[in-house]
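In response to reviewer comment 3 from the previous cycle, which asked for concrete evidence that the modeling workflow produces usable outputs, we include below a single protein chain processed end to end. The sequence was submitted unchanged, and the resulting structure tokens are shown without manual editing.
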Amino acid sequence: MLQHLGEEITIDDVTYPIGHLVPFFHTLPGVGIDGADLRVRISFSCHVFSEKALHNEQFDMRDQNESPRRFDRTRYDRSLTLPNDVRTLLDSNGVTWEMKDHNNIENMAALTDVPDLKVIKGTFDVILYYLYPSQAEHFDVEMNVLTCHIRS
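The workflow returned the following structure tokens.
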């Protein structure tokens, strides 16, 4: 979902590599149909390093839907470990729940730091994502990571 941005983005004359967010595959041994391996393709939205630009606000990029976005350095820094956090979430079969986004659309949510922790009150980094069956022959499920940021 980041193909339209390339391998790096430049904001205020500073270049930020985004190669760590290229799609990758992750295999979950024995959890597929009839004990087969389940192959997941993980991709990321530019929302993992940007925020929605307010109406008439200057913006740095457009997302895959052509909506204006502002670069967010905190989210960008958090994105540097996000691929490994997603692997950990999948490998640990971490706690996941439904959570509505700002558009009132249901997504899946999971904690990043302690994916096997029971849900408790507090403030945590939360991964918002959705899953859907793949139409491709060489993998089973698509996981699109929409964003990761602090939520209460």
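The chain has one domain: 3-151. We consider this sufficient to address the reviewer's concern, and the full set will be provided in the supplementary archive.
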